[in-house]
Amino acid sequence: MDVRSSSESSESNSSGDSLTQTVEDSLGYCTICDDNVNHSTWECPDRSKGFGLCCSVCLGPCKNNDEHRECQVEMIKYCVVCGAQARHWGEDCPHVPEDDEVEVDLSTLTDDYYGF
């Protein structure tokens, strides 16, 4: 589907070039690339770096794949410790000293936003 602004025309300009611009040609922000690029986060060529399987029971990477297989959805990684998106999960946060355990109070999290 072509989307054209009211100032654009499908007619050619005086040099013979088309002024038509599609949405796909415009720049968009990609969370994984952390930049304005020619693709969305969902269409990123490096998608595997920023996405992971999230379990609606564990509220993060699943700790029981056998029992929760039906509860997993692909989503952008999010760190509950430092707030980073598309980089790592909270359990893998590089801002936590190695000898410390990451503890997340799951009672404060909600799954309403994700529609689980």
Automatic annotation (TrEMBL):
<feature type="region of interest" description="Disordered">
    <location>
        <begin position="1"/>
        <end position="21"/>
    </location>
</feature>
<feature type="compositionally biased region" description="Low complexity">
    <location>
        <begin position="1"/>
        <end position="15"/>
    </location>
</feature>
<protein>
    <recommendedName>
        <fullName>CCHC-type domain-containing protein</fullName>
    </recommendedName>
</protein>
